[in-house]
Amino acid sequence: MFTKAIKGLTCAVVGTILAAGTPATAEDTIKIGGIFSMSGTAPYYGQVMSQGAQLAIDEINAEGGVDGRKLELVIEDHKSGNTQAAVTGMNRLINVVGVKAVLSSFSGPTAAIAPISQDRGIFTLNGGGVSPKMIGVSDHMFHNRSMALDLALASVAYAVESGHKRIAQIAIKSEFGDSAIAAAIEAAERAGVEIVASEQFANDATNIDAQIAKIRAARPDVVLNWATTPQAGIAVKRLRDIQVNVPVQSMEWTSEDFAIAGDHSENIFVVTDYFSASEENEWGKHFHDAYVARHGDDPDFYAANYYEAIYVIAELISRAHDAKGKDFASADLTEQLWADNSFKSVYGGTMKFRDNGVVIKRVALLEVKDGKTEFVRFIEAAAD
Q1: How far apart are CA 49 and CA 37, in angstroms?
Q2: Boundaries of every domain in the chain
Q3: Nearest residue to 298 (alpha-carbon basis) of 275, 280, 282
Q4: Which of 14, 142, 213, 225 could form a disulfide with 250 if both were Cys (CB 3.0 to 4.6 A apart)?
Q5: What CATH number should be reported for the domain whose range is 2-145+276-361?
Q6: What is the pLDDT of residues 181-213, one digit of tens each?
Q7: Is residue 306 within 8 Å of 102, Cβ to Cβ?
């Protein structure tokens, strides 16, 4: 069990997944792939995701590796959502690098590599994308982030709880944006409230005033902002610039969004995966402190998801090694996950993978106040 692999506040990684042995040679190194957004319009994601994953790998290696074998993270760049770049990177990771597992990110790239994951039996773990189109497309693909429908159910539920009856939404024109809007429409229909406007804009759009004007004309009493960083901040700035001053519920809100929205960063609520470095969560506190010491910034939930993902993979590698020996296959990690689908979570407590491969995880309501996001409470997010 992963719970046995956590050691207090120090390195958080001893126990069953680690065994001191002779120094690992290059041939003994177990390679894990990461397909991240390292360039393009959204390099922020690739930076924090890779930093979280690398921190976990460095901690594990510092304690002797997994059963005496060191881990290595090999990164491919999908260039902020380019699906062909993701496919090329996946093929290189499998055929050239020889990875045992792959960390994926963004909905489009993750969906694009799913057929390869299925055909080649490559264990793939996504901690960033939220589209339902990634679900069920590969027997070897899993998600330790809440999906769009989970977040939409939670966001619409909070809007209804707050007394809002006329809901507008805005998203980027993408496979993810389409999925988020569709999920919110379905959730609103279930809740008996009206979606009065659904607008989308291009990822590289320099002017979104036409979309914002349509939202204003629809007279919503809340706007669901499905855009991601930095477009989330752009959407709020333009909404406020033309006097759409109703509450905005975002899926995320980062330091970049604060910088873009500036003084307009108010009356904003965030429904999202939530990482807290509370004193009660010893492993989470350790991760937070180690990340700050290395990078000088607080880790966001993306960094936490990929840090956590490495530990899930490390435990599965140890289980597969015990069951199949040194030459275990990537598909053996899938078999080991289903043998026990509960894992310790850096968010606190445990997380469990559902039959569809999506984790059941805590989702939080945050409020943007005085230049920071403040935790309000946890809300129900998991869809049936």
Answers
A1: 9
A2: 2-145+276-361, 148-274+364-379
A3: 275
A4: 225
A5: 3.40.50.2300
A6: 998 998 899 899 999 999 999 988 989 999 999
A7: no
Tokens coding 4: 């046995």
- Fold agreement (2-145+276-361, 148-274+364-379): yes
Region class of 296: left (phi > 0), else alpha (psi between -120 and 50), else beta: left
The pLDDT assigned to 380 comes to 58
> Nearest-5° angle of CA 4, CA 47, CA 296?
75
Q: Are 102 and 117 in contact (CB under 8 A)?
A: yes
Q: DSSP characters for 133-151?
A: GGTTS-TTEEESS--HHHH
Q: What is the CA radius of gyration of the chain?
A: 21
Q: What is the CATH number of domain 148-274+364-379?
A: 3.40.50.2300
Structure tokens at 235: 């959407």
**Element spanning 45, H or E:** helix 43-62
Structure tokens at 294: 């290395």
pLDDT number for residue 273: 83
* Angle made by CA atoms 189, 192, 197, in degrees to the nearest 5: 60
CB atoms within 10 A of CB 46: 25
In sequence order, the β-bridge partners of residue 227 are none
- The Cα-based distances of 244 to 149, 222, 264, 349 in angstroms read 26, 9, 11, 40
| Continuous segment of H or E residues that includes residue 257 | helix 255-261
The whole-angstrom distance between residue 270's C-alpha and the CA centroid of its chain comes to 15
pLDDT, tens digit, 9 for 90 and up, residues 246-303: 999 999 898 899 999 999 999 999 998 888 787 888 999 999 999 999 999 999 999 9
Confidence of residue 27 (pLDDT cuts 50, 70, 90): low
Whole-angstrom distance, CA of residue 128 vs CA of residue 130: 7
| Residue 26, pLDDT score | 55
Cβ(253)–Cβ(373) below 8 Å: yes
